[in-house]
């Protein structure tokens, strides 16, 4: 896998053991502190590189401003055609991008291939919107023609996480440039490589040089510098609630709005009348796929008391059936925890859960195997909603199963959380399904399924899960300024320039 990765990278930059930034259509290596990346499978060093310095921030800001004006000067149809070409180029390079994503982000190869394909879909979807972001004519009660138009913000700063780097790269880039903006994207310092390749392919497709800039570096240095110094009009952040709040404060000091996609502790609710076998499979996929490193994971499993024990045992069977191993193996279904810091957090949360009285059911397997890598086995905790493991993100293949009595109890437990990103209900009662969907406070909710997400549908959270929406038509609105234009049409205009009666 390392050789395949190096051969791919050599097509873009020569020093395969280092990582540059991509600014103004060129690769530029930073001059800051060393950043060292490790392999989650065995703890060995993958590569190291230098943090982006202040000169890179300045170049990215200037390049984006110039490219943004050139991009907006093009016709909407021309922008859409280029975006479709980007999607096609991603499809043509799917295997290479998947290998890079697998190697650099420790994501199972089978999952990486699916996510790269979805990135192509994102650019194709928004390519179709490029010439349809039109405004409205408002029937105002005067002699004016009043119309509303949508214009780009300018340059947008996007900060993406390590758990789904190529997916969140496309998820953010596509609507931003479809709405006419330029972008400075700062991926996690742990996973910048796939974003660099997507930006390179976008420039090959014909976008102006500097329309998409990728900054490889730390959040507390390069990220904060971009917020405070770059000529940006909005910040979009995907990551932890704690970091999101710090970013929102820094942006607010400059009067810059944010879109925040933060954490989740989503309630996956199973009633006794559900299709039990289907619900068990759904609950397993909801938390164990991606090693639980997804903001929408069904990490709180609410099960009706009458089926609680049987259902928990069924979900725990995943520990025996899922293939856990090296990300590059085609058969691997669950890979390691991405990095040492997160691995330590998962282990700490498991220890706290046991101290609080949670019961671990793992079919005889240890939650944390004795291995050199950052591996955690699928784990079911029997517990209560007030426990830390049910209130705080674990971000690993660990689910907390909580019993409930009836519909009202299930809804109360589901809403007893500071998060509100997603949720689901499993039941054959159609009325109950819609009642629960209406009453659970979550930005995305599934009925008899879990984790279906598409770029055409709005995505975002309630409460500490953030605010704003980052997909669908709603994302285009997030990336647009709204302008209301008034045109006097009367032959003899009345000299009334305010809300008061006509002036004499």
Automatic annotation (TrEMBL):
Family matches, as InterPro entries: Ald_DH/histidinol_DH (IPR016161), Ald_DH_C (IPR016163), Ald_DH_CS_GLU (IPR029510), Ald_DH_N (IPR016162), Aldehyde_DH_dom (IPR015590)
Highest taxon above the source species: Bacteria
Family statement: Belongs to the aldehyde dehydrogenase family.
GO molecular function: oxidoreductase activity, acting on the aldehyde or oxo group of donors, NAD or NADP as acceptor
Catalytic center residues: 261
Pfam families xrefs: Aldedh
Name of the featured protein: Aldehyde dehydrogenase
Keywords on record: Oxidoreductase
């Amino acid at each position: 896998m390392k050789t395949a990765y190096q051969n791919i990278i050599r097509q873009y930059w020569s020093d395969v053991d280092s990582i540059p930034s991509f600014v103004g259509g060129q690769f530029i290596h930073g001059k800051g502190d060393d950043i060292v990346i490790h392999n989650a499978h065995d703890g060995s060093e993958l590569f190291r590189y230098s943090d982006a310095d202040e000169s890179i921030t300045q170049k990215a800001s200037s390049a984006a401003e110039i490219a943004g004006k050139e991009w907006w000067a093009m016709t909407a149809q021309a922008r859409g055609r280029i975006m479709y070409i980007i999607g096609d180029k991603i499809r043509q390079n799917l295997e290479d991008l998947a290998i890079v994503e697998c190697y650099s982000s420790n994501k199972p190869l089978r999952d990486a291939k699916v996510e790269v394909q979805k990135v192509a879909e994102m650019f194709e979807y928004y390519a179709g919107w490029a010439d349809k972001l039109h405004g409205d004519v408002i029937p105002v009660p005067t002699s004016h023609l009043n119309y509303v138009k949508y214009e780009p913000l300018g340059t947008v700063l996007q900060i993406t996480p390590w758990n789904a780097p190529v997916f969140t790269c496309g998820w953010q880039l596509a609507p931003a440039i479809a709405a006419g903006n330029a972008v400075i994207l700062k991926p996690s310092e742990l996973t910048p490589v796939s974003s660099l390749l997507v930006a390179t392919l976008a420039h090959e497709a014909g976008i102006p040089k500097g329309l998409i800039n990728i900054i490889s570096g730390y959040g507390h240095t390069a990220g904060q510098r971009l917020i405070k110094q770059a000529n940006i009009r909005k910040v979009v952040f995907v990551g932890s609630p704690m970091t999101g709040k710090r970013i929102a404060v820094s942006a607010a000091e400059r009067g810059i709005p944010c879109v925040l996609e933060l954490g989740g502790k989503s309630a996956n609710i199973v009633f006794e009348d559900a299709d039990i076998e289907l619900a068990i499979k759904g609950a397993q996929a909801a938390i164990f796929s991606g090693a639980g490193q997804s903001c929408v994971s069904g990490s709180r499993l609410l099960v009706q008391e009458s089926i609680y024990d049987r259902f928990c045992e069924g979900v725990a069977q995943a520990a025996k059936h899922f293939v856990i191993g090296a990300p590059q193996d085609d058969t691997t279904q669950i890979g390691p925890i991405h990095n040492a810091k997160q691995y330590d957090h998962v282990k700490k949360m498991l220890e706290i859960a046991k101290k609080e009285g949670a019961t671990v059911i793992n079919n005889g397997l240890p939650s944390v195997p004795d291995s050199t890598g950052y591996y955690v086995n699928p784990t079911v905790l029997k517990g209560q909603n007030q426990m830390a493991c049910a209130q705080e993100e674990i971000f690993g293949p660990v689910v907390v199963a909580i019993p409930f009595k009836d519909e009202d109890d299930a809804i109360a437990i589901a809403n007893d959380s500071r998060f509100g990103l997603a949720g689901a209900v499993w039941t054959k009662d159609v009325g109950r399904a819609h009642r629960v969907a209406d009453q659970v406070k979550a930005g995305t909710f599934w009925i008899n399924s879990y984790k279906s997400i598409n770029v055409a549908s709005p995505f975002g959270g309630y409460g500490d899960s953030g605010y704003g929406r980052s997909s669908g038509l709603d994302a285009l609105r997030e990336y647009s300024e709204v302008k209301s234009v008034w045109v006097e049409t009367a032959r003899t205009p009345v000299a009334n320039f305010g809300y008061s009666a006509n002036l004499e």
